Amino acid sequence: MDRQEFERLALEHLDAVYRMALHLTRNPEQAEDVVQDVYARALRPRAVASFEDRSSDGTGGMRSWLFTITHNVFYSKVKKDKRRPQAVGEFFAEADSAPLPDEPPPAWDGAAFDWEHVDGRLKSAIEDLKDEFREVLLLWGVEGLKYREIAEILGVPIGTVMSRLHRARKILADGLLGDTDTVRDLGLSRFDASSGNGGME
Amino acid sequence: MNSDGANDMNLAALLRAGADDELQPDQKAHLDAHLRDHPRDTDRIEFERQLKEACGRVMGPISAPPALRERLIASLDRIAQDNSPRQEASSTAPAPESVRLAQGVESLSEQTRRQSFWNRMTPAVRALAAAILLLVGGLFLLQVVNVGSGNLSLAQAHMSEIATFVGDEHDRCVIDPSRAAKFNISELDAAPALLEEIVGKSISPANLAFGGLAFRDGGRCHVPGKGDSVHLRFDVVDQPGETVSLFIQRVADESDELFESGKSYELQSDNQGRAVFGWAADGLNYFLVAKDEALCESYSIERGLTPNAG
């Protein structure tokens, strides 16, 4: 791949890389720093060779490759800044071994949803999620990646991706459905989120 | 979806994976059978699909700031310019991208050898630098990095990355006032404590100060590498509006060991619009950014000769 093509491809995904960096850092300035580090790393000779290898064996394109670098840059910074009392590796190990949550998605009475009325509350709930949950939610919900692709980007087993997604979704659903105004705005009624048998009265 | 995590899938996981179209045929058949017995659970699947759409709607509409895009393009252009002379001289056949990028880094280093600092100084600055040298005993000579053509290392690529970062960060902080929010000290006397906190070593104000420079501010920075870093800024007294940046980074491990002790390295020269010098002392990397190469030279000479003991 020649230089111009490489740059064109890399810059084509700048919005997606910035979006991921912003959702991880929740700070525009830090997000820009992350993005610049991502592109600096992406242009290292060894990194370019790594991308060419990865592309040639069909395991990922430029976007996934840049997401992988973004993930690595962010968590390197997390470790360096010691912002988290718990080591990332320890958290991953914990998440990997935890069973999938058994709570089913909430049921409702079939009334029409009105999600747009709760977008603000959903946004707030997403911002409260742990970085790991928000990251997987972004790759799944916004970037439309499959579980396997997300697992490859994050360097974790596919079961871990599923576990994080389930937990993230449950937290969001619980957060939304625990609020009576949200339930009303969504058009829900008589739901029973904790029941596994349909939950309808 | 493959088998790990899917074979023992419980109902919740089955419904959610079904909503995500991530089921294998046998799992899909299992879900279909379940839905025949529990038709209301199709609503649960629909809820998950709508939740996904809502997440996409809430998290999705974010674009990179135009200024960030411009900076990245400018950085890429700079690397391309660094590459071009060598490409023309070496071969008409295009080299692999990795080789050309490596050549760009090498080219960057070559620029540090191309012009002698001593020949380019004004007489006054030369006299000042010479005086400093005499005063401290002339124990060290300024040396520029010498990258052999077949000896390019990842460390040198990393050095180039850092040179670009500190140069760009210096410019950003000048151009964009909002960047100055990171600076949380404005007195030189506060610098030792800041450095102690972030890079683990205290440097006395006397060892940070330099004639003709007035301390402006300082704060945490994120120089590429494993070690934490600090960004200090000084105003050039004789040149209103001109600022010098000193980045100090802790050497966390061997991947941060970029410089040979006692030598300073010209990572960018002022014919690139700014000069960037680097050196190491006492477990710290120093990167000095200024418009004037001679100032960098003088400062690094003094620092190289009197390394701080922390």
SSE layout:
The complex is a heterodimer of chains A (201) and B (310).
Chain A (H helix, E strand, L loop, with lengths): L2 H10 L1 H12 L2 H15 L2 H12 L5 H20 L6 H10 L21 H9 L3 H11 L5 H8 L3 H20 L2 H7 L15
Chain B lengths: L10 H9 L5 H13 L3 H19 L6 H25 L6 H18 L2 H4 L2 H14 L17 H22 L7 E3 L5 H9 L5 H4 L4 E9 L7 E8 L6 E8 L13 E5 L6 E7 L2 E7 L2 H13 L5
Antiparallel strand pairs in B: 1-2, 2-3, 3-4, 4-7, 5-6, 6-7
Helix pairs in contact in B: 1-3, 4-5, 7-11
Describe this structure in words.
The complex is a heterodimer of chains A (201) and B (310). By secondary structure, chain A is mainly α. Helix content of chain A is 67%, strand content 0%. Chain A folds into two domains: 3-83, RNA polymerase sigma factor, region 2, helix turn helix motif (Rna Polymerase Sigma Factor, Chain: A); 96-186, Orthogonal Bundle (Arc Repressor Mutant, subunit A), CATH 1.10.10.10. Chain A is elongated, with a radius of gyration of 19 Å. Mean pLDDT of chain A is 71; it is low at 83-101, 108-112 and 189-201. Chain B has two domains: 11-59, no CATH class; 69-305, no CATH class. In chain B, a hairpin with a 2-residue loop joins strand 6 (275-281) and strand 7 (284-290). In chain B, 40% of the residues are buried. Chain B has helices at residues 11-19, 25-37, 41-59, 66-90, 97-114, 117-120, 123-136, 154-175, 191-199, 205-208, 293-305; strands spanning 183-185, 213-221, 229-236, 243-250, 264-268, 275-281, 284-290. Chain B is elongated. The interface between A and B is large, with 77 and 72 residues.
**Percent strand of chain A:** under 5%
Supply the CATH superfamily name of the largest domain in chain A. Answer: Winged helix-like DNA-binding domain superfamily/Winged helix DNA-binding domain
Biggest sheet character of chain A: none
Q: How many strand elements of chain B? A: 7
> Ranges of chain B with pLDDT <50 over ≥5 residues?
1-8, 85-120, 137-152, 305-310
Shape descriptor of chain B: elongated
- What fold name stands as the CATH topology of the largest domain in chain A? Arc Repressor Mutant, subunit A
In round numbers, the mean pLDDT of chain A is 71
Described by strand count, sense and barrel closure, the largest sheet of chain B is: 7 strands, antiparallel
- Overall pLDDT of chain B, averaged? 72
Task: Report the order of strands and helices of chain B.
Answer: HHHHHHHHEHHEEEEEEH
Q: What percent of residues of chain B adopt helix (DSSP H or I)?
A: 40-55%
Distance between the termini of chain B: 55 Å
Tally of helical runs of chain B: 11
